[in-house]
Amino acid sequence: MRTCSPDMVRTDAHQLRPVAGDSAEAEAVKVLARAHKTLIWERTRHTQRLRHALRDYFPAALIAFADLAAADALHLLATAPTPAEAKQLTIAQISAALKRAHRRGDLRQKATVIHAALRERHLGQPVVVSAAYAATVRSTVAILTVLNEQITVLEGGVREHFGAHPAAEILTSQPGLGPILGARVLAEFGDDPLRYASAKARKNYAATSPITRASGKKKVVLARFVHNDRLIDALDAQAFAALSASPGARAYYDRQRARDLGHHAALRQLANRLVGILHGCLKTGTVYDEATAWHHHANRLAA
């Protein structure tokens, strides 16, 4: 990290700002929320590796298991990682795995479907090659099993620490934000009340606000490509969830689409609007109110 020299402080103090002072509670939420999200990303990477390996030697497993990271799929792949071994699994064994994974519905019917899928004929590999792939699959399955366990453990920690933060009620009142997404947003924005001088400053940090560049008569509006990946990931997820949780958010998104904006561009505009709403709620210490949040846009449409 670069530090400023004494001369810079003396000559350019007006261009410097104090370091944000987030609370210890917010820092604890950040540590846990980031670790939790990192493990989720790692699970996705290992699931893709598992998918690629199965595609090469055991494609029937991809038909049988819709979610390769699910507990039942991992248990059955650990028990029978080759096509030959999978064909020996009984409906009772598959049903037991589904029950252990707390699957709902008609477990025997689901087990029958999996049982049939594992017996589908596909172009396979020589036995010795299948055995080599099976060794790698067992290893990946073991990693995914541990990741699932630790993700659950860290999720509990995120919920506990976030729930104890004074801003938790305001954050979870926002459309599309629950305890986990709310914790991620808090972690990346921080809780220093003086860090963002205005809603625009918070939007600029979030990289949801566009950049306007003008030269002569030409004006170009661009998206911000330099951003905090963790924050923009959480805000995108919030905006998408808000489409179902908030009539105002849905109407705002639909208006952006009516302007011929694509889905991602319209979602970014919605995220930008939601960041502004969140800033207002945090500044005034009030929870989200649907009518108040979208009152300005509703009046503009009615005019």
From TrEMBL:
<dbReference type="Pfam" id="PF02371">
    <property type="entry name" value="Transposase_20"/>
</dbReference>
<dbReference type="GO" id="GO:0003677">
    <property type="term" value="F:DNA binding"/>
</dbReference>
<dbReference type="GO" id="GO:0004803">
    <property type="term" value="F:transposase activity"/>
</dbReference>
<feature type="domain" description="Transposase IS110-like N-terminal">
    <location>
        <begin position="7"/>
        <end position="59"/>
    </location>
</feature>
<protein>
    <recommendedName>
        <fullName>Transposase IS116/IS110/IS902 family protein</fullName>
    </recommendedName>
</protein>
<dbReference type="InterPro" id="IPR002525">
    <property type="entry name" value="Transp_IS110-like_N"/>
</dbReference>
<dbReference type="InterPro" id="IPR003346">
    <property type="entry name" value="Transposase_20"/>
</dbReference>
<dbReference type="Pfam" id="PF01548">
    <property type="entry name" value="DEDD_Tnp_IS110"/>
</dbReference>
<dbReference type="InterPro" id="IPR047650">
    <property type="entry name" value="Transpos_IS110"/>
</dbReference>
<feature type="domain" description="Transposase IS116/IS110/IS902 C-terminal">
    <location>
        <begin position="168"/>
        <end position="253"/>
    </location>
</feature>
<dbReference type="GO" id="GO:0006313">
    <property type="term" value="P:DNA transposition"/>
</dbReference>
